[in-house]
Amino acid sequence: MADTQRTLVIIKPDGVQRGLIGEIITRLERRGLRLVGLNIGVISEATARKHYAEHEGKGFYNSLVSYITSGPSVTMVLEGPDAIGVVRSTVGSTRPAEAAPGTIRADYGLTVGRNLIHASDGEASAEREVALFFGDAPLPTYTRDIDRWILED
């Protein structure tokens, strides 16, 4: 599977509490991405602080950490060609009011503080975030029979 990327997606506590786990995963899988890692649980404060380290010192940092640790989240790794870009275009703008129609945030979000989902924003962050949430555990790579109908040779 040449030119395949992996990316981290987090369905945040608001997405879990609103019962949107299945809808969000379905949308990402229907784009053609493969799910290669999946966990559900409450993110620890230490992990949340590492995850949001780039925002440390900003006025909203503590509320980010507090929110992401406030209830269960779903963390997942998705794989496919241009997975990072495909996920981000499916998720939509960080600000739901500015998100393109048909994106997850446009369809289900209203405010930036409850925007349902996190998606890695580049290759370096995807690599760092996958390692942070999934450690050194090997994640599977596999093909599906349907891949020939989704992917070009």
Structural commentary:
The protein has one domain (4-137): 2-Layer Sandwich (Alpha-Beta Plaits). It has eight helices and four strands, in the order βααβααβααβαα. The chain has helices at residues 13-17, 21-30, 45-51, 61-68, 83-91, 104-108, 123-134, 147-150; strands spanning 4-11, 34-42, 72-81, 117-119.
Q: Based on helices, strands and strand pairing, what is the structural class?
A: alpha+beta
The quaternary organization reads as single chain
Relevant CATH superfamily: Nucleoside diphosphate kinase-like domain
- The helix/strand order is EHHEHHEHHEHH
Number of strands: 4
CATH domain topology: Alpha-Beta Plaits
Approximately what portion of the residues adopt beta-strand conformation? 15-25%
Radius of gyration: 15 Å
Indicate the percent of residues in helices: 25-40%
Total number of domains: 1
- On the 0 to 100 scale, the average pLDDT is 95
Distance between the termini: 10 Å
Question: Which stretches are low in confidence, meaning pLDDT under 50 for 5 or more residues running?
Answer: none
Task: Offer a concise description of the structure.
The chain is an alpha+beta fold and about 150 residues long.
From the structure above, extract its key features.
4-stranded antiparallel sheet, Alpha-Beta Plaits, 153 residues, alpha+beta
Secondary structure elements and pairings:
Blueprint: E1 4-11, H1 13-17, H2 21-30, E2 34-42, H3 45-51, H4 61-68, E3 72-81, H5 83-91, H6 104-108, E4 117-119, H7 123-134, H8 147-150
Antiparallel strand pairs: 1-3, 1-4, 2-3
